[in-house]
Fold these 2 entries.
Entry 1:
Amino acid sequence: MNLKYTNRALVALTIALLGAVQLSADVVETKSGARIVGKVVKVDGGSVVVSTDYAGTVTIKQADVSAITTDEAIAVRLASGTRVEGRVSGTADALQIASRDGTINTSVDKVAASWAAGGKDPQIAALERSWAFEAGVDITGRSGNKSQLGTAANFRATLAGPTDALVFYTGYDRQETDNEVSADQFKAGVDYTNAFSGKYSWYVRNEAGFDRIKDIDFYDVAGAGLGYDFVKSARQTLTGRFGLSFRSENYGNPATEDLNAVGLDLGLNNEIKFKTWSMVNRLSVVPAFNDFGNYRLAHESYAEMPLVSTNWRIRIGLTNDYNSKPGPGIEKMDTGYFTRLVLNWK
């Protein structure tokens, strides 16, 4: 008998706990009669996003919502610009936001956005500039019949806002084969872009460094001009550049004449994001006005995939550096292949 009563008590307690869980959840009802139980993550762009245990993230058109109830306070911005934090309840035409300072009566269609209580308004966050950083390193080696050691490292810092981006970058590559240096190259640069009107932008950039294998003690390439976004979406960005440049190269060999030339600055940048990986292609060509056959071409392409942590990525790609008129005994094209471990953080 005691076991019977104990089982009944356990069943009753389970039902009560399930009921408590049910009561603690947010509820969104639609005009078609659907009832979504979970956690209201946000209201943004005319949609209500709800996180559920049974169906993952569910996105509902705001116009299809007939009622909303939240168990805890959320932050809400109305179409009028009013911002308030409170528990939300009511129907589409009679919505109430119960805050510490009182209750606001509104409607679902007048809710411009919502986010977690205590968080930052996405509209304000979108207007703020923020830093993003990445550092990469790859080391290769071999011993035995041949000895080889290669090291490469790079760093990139980006300060991005809603319409502009300032990028600082640097990189060093050194390779030794049988104690003979086959690569010794350093570069550092800055690039600023400002999208002043729709798909149009202007830019300024400067890159300097050395390449001892190509007998370049110091080089500097400065450019400025206009950019145009042929494709600009959340998935892909394809931007072309057209401007003027000044290219300077100082050679270690006294027999090679140093270069100081004004010319064009042509570029093409393409980035495609897939579900779990991305692909980047960058191309730059700098021909001189006094001799269009004298130009430098720099190219980089790579695919990037996440590792266990989203901050750590593996990058596989290649680079091409082409100088149409190098010094005596120097090859025009240098091609490099790399597999690089990259750390991203903000």
Entry 2:
Amino acid sequence: MGDVNRRAVKPLQVNPVGLTQPMGATLAFLGVDRCMPLMHGAQGCTSFAKVYFTRHFCEPIAIQTTAVTDVTAILDGGDHNIVESVRNIAVKTAPALIALYTTGLTETKGDDIRGVAAKIDYPLVWVNTPDYEGGLESGWALAVGALIEQLTVPANAIDGHKVVLLPHVSLQPLEVEKLKTFIAAFGFEVLAIPDLSTSLDGHLGEKQSALSSGGITVEEIRTLADAGLVISFGASMLPCARILQAKNPAIRHHHFSHVHGLEATDALAALLLAESGFEQPTVDIIRWRKRLQDALLDCHFALGQTRILVAGEPDFLGGACQLLAEAGAKVTGAIATVDSPLLDGLPVDRVLVGDLEDAESLHDAYDLIVGSGHVEALAHRYHKGVVLRGFPDWETLGNQLRNDVLYEGGAYFLFEVANVAERMRRDG
């Protein structure tokens, strides 16, 4: 690994690649069954999030707003808007849970949403998510922490067969499902929080619902503290694991920075073998491990000749960069949306905490870029290969069914990147 250059603060986002905390919280609450996200802020903020995720998932997105204006923010801080919004939501849709979270407007005013929430007689969680701090990852993690802190009931006993999975925000719905299935193959009952694998997985419902349809239920969240094992993925989810452990000190916790590629998946399988007492994984898991090993060999030549830049959320970078490095790719740069301890160990020549202006200034240092739909224009302008990952991807169908994790997903990802690299060489 080359010298890693860290730039933690950029005074101006010229061409942003990151998203805000309210966006991350929105996604997290959509992974709770029959939950209504209620964004406390201006109507435009909520409309933007709704359109943004509707286009990415090609699914209707359930979200409501308190519709605070600059006038109401100044006169009463928006408290009345919260009460009225909750009343209207309760009457019209009767959700199992209302999730109240803030934006920059209401945080700047200093609204006391905790105080307002304490006066509301309806199942509700609240969380502060100012959009002038953090990003998509931290907004997701803050929302998950609030769900556990405010809903999960403390316990003393544990169920040795119960596992709680804490996925980071960059794991797509199918990837969460694959993780649940992988863990369940070792004899465990698995609950993921949040769980997009049954809410935004692209399944065809009987009719369009006004609420999130699928995900972990409120009752399941209440009973998480009796799990024998908690497995967290991504540095952003470590605080959530600690919050859950505080509910029951007997809970055992194991953390993985990511679960991309051979080494990381082997580590997860080894943990599950030790915890379950199984002598070996199932036949299909063993078969997929051999397929990934073959994929590493098949893709090595194409990737070893390709200089790659990866842009996205830190937890995504941790997995994608490691998987590419395993296959011999030259990962010359990584651009993170926000700073994170995970960035210190990336097998990358250069790490920047910045935006796509940095990707443009480094265009001579890479041949192919992995990132969200925002990188496409840059890639075409400089004749770079492009592999789309992250939010948003408005040009590709089936984002919710994309899988890059474990043995199976790792093989698919490597083949996709290698094929793009080979097409670049053929086309000159």
